[in-house]
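Team,

Forwarding the record for the chain on the shared tracking sheet. I've put the sequence and predicted structure together so nobody has to dig through attachments.
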Amino acid sequence: MLMTTSEPVAACDLAGREAAALYRLMTWLSPAFPVGGFSYSSGIEWAVEVGDIVDTATLADWLDAMLGDGSGFCDATFLVHAYRAAEAGEEAILSDIAELAAAMVPSRERQLETSSQGRAFIDISRAAWDADGLDAMVAACRTPLVYPLAVGVVAAMHGVPLAPTLHAFLHALVSNWISAASRLIPLGQTDSQRVLVRLEAAVAATANRALNATLDDLGGATFRADLASLRHETQYTRLFRS
């Protein structure tokens, strides 16, 4: 039976379930999905200007740290807990997670980045990929959903499995960082792919950590990256909004 976009993935048909989940994840986390990710660099623009990132090696090191010890891990953990709360129908818990996620963003521009993308993701999902229960979950939150929470909630409402959702989210996150850096350093297409290859194991490790993390495990050790997002606010020449 052909599925409509408003139906959850049917558990009775494994092949159809996997195909539908893959189709939706490839759509939602594609650069073509209009959440405006191309407008943000997560502070990478400042890091390039001051010379912290100058080539593929320094970029890979910077992103590896952001992924495993900074915003990447925190976003992944928030996605996991938002997904599980939405899947269980725990509206109050989801609302608390949304408040914590918004409070932990380290700078004004990063707040703009994640909240704008989260709002766009929810709005587009409602318009084109709506699902039963999505409106109720969003309405239950006292704080607008930041981007990783929006992805987690929408995926849960569609019945897309958590593990591939998380892995696809982190792949998209890293890809957007590399795309920003490729325009700033600049990098060629092949070098950009080399950085993505180098980060494959880090993406998998971060996803595995997040799947087993509690909210008490949240935290980061990437002070320089947080400083970059703060300094970007007053950077003289800018291509990106963060």
